[in-house]
Amino acid sequence: MKSMDVPTERAREAFAEDRVRGSSADRLNRLVDLETQRCLEELASADRDTISQHIGALDREWDVERYLQTNAAIASLAGVALGAAVNRRFLLLPGVVFGFFLQHAIQGWCPPLPLFRRMGIRTRREINREKYALKVLRGDFETIGPLAGREQPR
Amino acid sequence: MHATLHAPGPDRVRANTWPPINERVDRGIQLRLRQAAAWHTPDELSDQIAALDMEWDFERVVEAEASLAGLLGLVLGATVDRRFLAVPAIVAVMLLVHASQGWYPLLPIFRRLGVRTRHEIDRERFGVKAIRGDFTTVPPAGAAATERAAAAWKAVCA
User: Fold this and answer.
1) Is A91 within 8 Å of chain B by CB?
2) Does residue B4 surpass a pLDDT of 60?
3) Looking at the predicted structure, is the pLDDT value of residue B33 above 80?
4) Which of A44, A57, B47, B67 can pair with B148 through a Cys bridge, CB separation 3.0 to 4.6 Å?
5) Does B5 touch chain A (CB under 8 A)?
């Protein structure tokens, strides 16, 4: 188990470019990491079909961008409708939503993000990390030769 | 070329892209992996991974474009003519269509400009990691499950 504890620190570095992770509490990122580690331990001795099924489920999993897009679209649509039909001041709502959504695209954070992260919703990078670790366990990369034979395209 | 090669699972953006453009993306990945395997040193492979991590993926491009278009429409709707409010409304509906179906009005343009999905970027990323030898540390099937799991986790995080 001791070797499982180390990489969380490294995971944070390696995924420094994941802006959503960079904008989430370390505690929540760690929960995501632990969940992936738990899943890998569970599936490390599983047969190919079980692993393939889990990879299929990962491909279908809704990532945090999909939730945020849905959320922003519904909130801004409601704001525009209210602003056009009821009172112009409701136009502030889509203004704020689009403003924060732009911030999310550029920097990563936006107001609903902490809530979604607390619900355990993952970034595509986090999902793919689990997916490719499972592909490794399934033996997908065993056919690739060592770096030494670099004349042969692999 | 088999169809399965170009349809890796439920990437909704790829499913809504004109197939020749997906093929172009795939050929680019294959070419860069071939170059990486043939010529690159481990340091160069690490630089390639760092560059992939920085790459703007399709979702990020759509989100930036949609929020800018929405804000512009709101400002024009509030100051010039109320009818401009149709712009943020259309943007919101299209974002909803994108989130549920994957399609987006500007998808053909973004894809033609070479904007890739995170699925595609990660395919290249983990291919480069495989070439760097990151996965050779993982014991083969049959070894202790805990060890294999720990090694696989370390390898994907490296």
Assistant:
1) yes
2) no
3) yes
4) A44
5) no
Q: Does A82 touch chain B (CB under 8 A)?
A: no
Flag whether pLDDT at A145 surpasses 90: no
Cβ–Cβ gap A73/B141 under 8 Å: no
Q: What angle do CA A11, A104, B47 make, to 5 degrees?
A: 40
Which chain A positions have a beta carbon within 8 Å of B141's beta carbon?
137, 139
Q: Which alpha helices (H) appear in chain A, and where do they start and end?
A: 2-5, 7-14, 19-22, 26-43, 48-60, 64-85, 92-106, 113-118, 124-138
Check CB contact under 8 Å for B119 and A132.
no
Q: What percentage of residues in chain B have a pLDDT greater than 70?
A: 94
Q: Do A128 and B37 touch (CB under 8 A)?
A: no
Residue B141 is classified by DSSP as: B
- Reported ipTM: the value is 0.91
Distance CA A75, CA A89 (A): 15
CB contact under 8 A, B42 and A151: no
Q: Does residue B130 contact residue A144 with C-beta atoms inside 8 Å?
A: yes
d(CA B65, CA B60): 9
Return phi, psi of residue B115, to 5°: -70, 125
Question: Is A1 close to B146, i.e. CB distance below 8 A?
Answer: yes
**Mean pLDDT calculated for residue range A19-38:** 95
Q: What is the mean predicted confidence (pLDDT) over A45-60?
A: 95
Query: Minimal Cα–Cα distance from B81 to chain A, Å?
Result: 12
